[in-house]
Amino acid sequence: MKYLTTLLLLLTLALPACANSPTDKSIDDKANLQVTVQTFHRDMRWKRWESAAMLMAPEKRQEFLGRYEELGEDFHISSIELKSLTHEGDKAIIDLEQESYKEPAMIVKKKRIIEVWEKRDSAWVLADRMPKDDYKEMKKAEEAAKKAEEAAKKDEAPPESDAPQ
């Protein structure tokens, strides 16, 4: 219930910030995202890996199922708490904290996770799910590649002539 309340609060706060004049379509879109995310997280908590995988991008499903199959029946997710949500058109970034444990140790481990949701063919799918530190590294690498590309384009541009015309 705490998770649902937090998610509803964040989505309510995010609605006005996402568009200057929300339309019925954008409100419906956010509601669809909310339902999809809640369903995925509920499936995760109840170890319904196959159902959760159906909400993932098709190219990620096998890897996802393999990972949770490898963790085994002794792995349990005790809670998933939404920390922040950034919604930009057909993409949403969710920062969450997941608590899990593995029997028989019963030691709860907290992990920060980033989920990248994309709207594809009018449905929200989970395009990526990774530890927050990995996400930060990926973003740094993307930014460095972008800067290198811009520098390469700048170097390729012909020098401007200083000669008077």
Draw up the topology in text.
Blueprint: H1 2-18, H2 24-45, H3 49-53, H4 61-71, E1 75-88, E2 91-102, E3 109-120, E4 123-131, H5 132-156
Antiparallel strand pairs: 1-2, 2-3, 3-4
Notes on the protein architecture:
By secondary structure, the chain is an alpha+beta fold. The protein contains five helices and four strands, in the order H-H-H-H-E-E-E-E-H. The protein has a single domain (2-154), classed as Nuclear Transport Factor 2, Chain: A, CATH 3.10.450. It is 48% helix and 28% strand. Strand 3 (109-120) and strand 4 form a beta hairpin. The longest helix is centred in the last third of the chain and has 25 residues, at 132-156. The protein is globular and about 70 Å long. The mean pLDDT is 86.
What attributes characterize this protein structure?
signal; 165 residues; Nuclear Transport Factor 2, Chain: A; 4 strands
Short description:
The protein is α+β, with helices and mostly antiparallel strands and 165 residues long. The chain is built from five helices and four strands. This is Nuclear transport factor 2 family protein.
Helix-strand topology string: HHHHEEEEH
Largest sheet: 4 strands, antiparallel
Structural class: alpha+beta
Helix share, percent: 40-55%
Strand order of the largest sheet: 1-2-3-4
Structurally, how many domains make up the residues? 1
- Termini gap: 73 Å
Q: What value does the average pLDDT take?
A: 86
How many DSSP E strands? 4
Number of helices: 5
- State the low-pLDDT regions, or none: none
The whole-angstrom Rg is 21 Å
Strand content: 25-35%
Secondary-structure arrangement, i.e. CATH architecture: Roll
CATH T-level fold name:
Nuclear Transport Factor 2, Chain: A
Form type = globular
CATH class descriptor: Alpha Beta
